[in-house]
Design goal:
The protein has 260 residues and is mainly alpha-helical. The protein has three domains: 85 residues, Winged helix-like DNA-binding domain superfamily/Winged helix DNA-binding domain (Arc Repressor Mutant, subunit A), CATH 1.10.10.10; 119 residues, no CATH class; 31 residues, no CATH class. 67% of the residues lie in helices and 3% in strands. The protein contains 13 helices and two strands; from the N terminus they run ααααββααααααααα. β1 and β2 form a beta hairpin.
Amino acid sequence: MDKTIKTLHLRLDTTSKSLTKNAISQLIIKVLFASNTPLTDKGIESGLKPILKTSIDKNRIDKSIQKLIDAREIKYVKKKYSLTSSNRKTLRKRYDISKQRLVRIVNKYFAPFHSSESDMIEWFSDATIEFFKSYSKEWVYDLSYSKSEKVKTKKEDIFKHIERRTKSNKHINSEDYNEINRKFVDCITNKKDPDLDAHLWEYGTSAFSANLIQSSIGADPISITAFSNSKCLLDTNVLMNIGLEASEYNHAFKKFDVIF
């Protein structure tokens, strides 16, 4: 799937109390948008798998699909799903805006360069995704607290991270390596303009949604290794909440039986 489609942030009418359910609904919309023809249940599942890099429980997909149908975000005809014409039109407009924004940012902050413009746009998109994979917590913290500058404290780490990624990109001219890596860090830490703000917001919220879904599917290998052979100390309040079936935490604490 096109990176621009993956990173689009959608405002859906199917607002749910569960952020994870909203994230799944957004992905389903994107899968349908990327397809030129209506999709069956299996088609949607197949479209989600390469994005998530794993399978997701079919029941969760079905519930999200039904909510999208109820809200008239998508339609179901002859056992196949597709976007409503108005939704496709809206998404196409947002997609085009995002593409045009990337062109403006690359030419404003990275020109002149020896690589082609299309390769530079692809590189910048990829570099932004890499940034959020490792530094999304710092970015969110800075966004939440105006005086915070946690991202700036990571400037050297970000440079080395993006530098490694850039050198593995065979489409980028080697003469561009040092300059574009330096300019990328400068963009992330110092520059402020509507295009950059919108770009980072779009990619940042998409990264947040992806993390929500991944964490809801199962524990990642790093977390499993970190907590392996550890001791879990439970406060006496936990025992009280386990005993009180009416407690909002009762169901969650019951899971300890399975974990331990």
